[in-house]
Amino acid sequence: xxGCGAVAKGGTTRARPASYVAMPHVQTDLFAQPDPPPAPxxxxxxxxxxxxxxxTLALVKAAETMPWGDVLAIIREDNEFRFAxxxxxxxxxxxxxxxxxxxxxxxxxxxNEGQEPDEI
Length: 120
Fold this sequence. Notes:
mainly alpha
């Protein structure tokens, strides 16, 4: 049967159409029960995270230029704040993130002042 990886007339092999390629991932069990939601973090962890986020926020608010010199360090700090805020109560985390994000926008503007945008 030509078009399905079989040998066609003349002995040449045709490639399988893309529609016959195997699925790239394993299908989950249709009848599996969803995982239970994760337990809320321990209050000691929440206090520790809150303290760290407030410390980082104070750092960026006081900074006139980006407080981290390495681009990877900037990305790491941004990601740590972004994911750590989710351990706090939703409203508190959202408020801290909005303030941090505003300050980071300010610092990025200072950092990129006078530079041409990258070509894509």
